[in-house]
Amino acid sequence: MYPIKFNPLLKSLVWGGEKIAPYKGIKTELHNVGESWEISGVPGNESVVAEGSLAGKTVVELLEEYKEQIVGRHVYDNTGNQFPLLIKFIDAASDLSIQVHPDDALAGVRHNGSKGKTEMWYVIEADKDAYLLSGLSKTITPEEYEKMVEDNTITDVIARHNVKKGDVFFLPAGRIHAICGGCFIAEIQQTSDITYRIYDYGRMGLDGKPRELHTELAKDAIDFKAYSDYRTDYVTRKNENTPLVECQYFTTSLLDLQQPLTEELAARDSFTIVICTEGEGTVTVEGDNIDPQHKTVSLRQGETVLVPACATRMMVTPSSNIKVLTSYIK
Question: Which domain holds residue 94?
Answer without folding.
Answer: 4-74+82-219
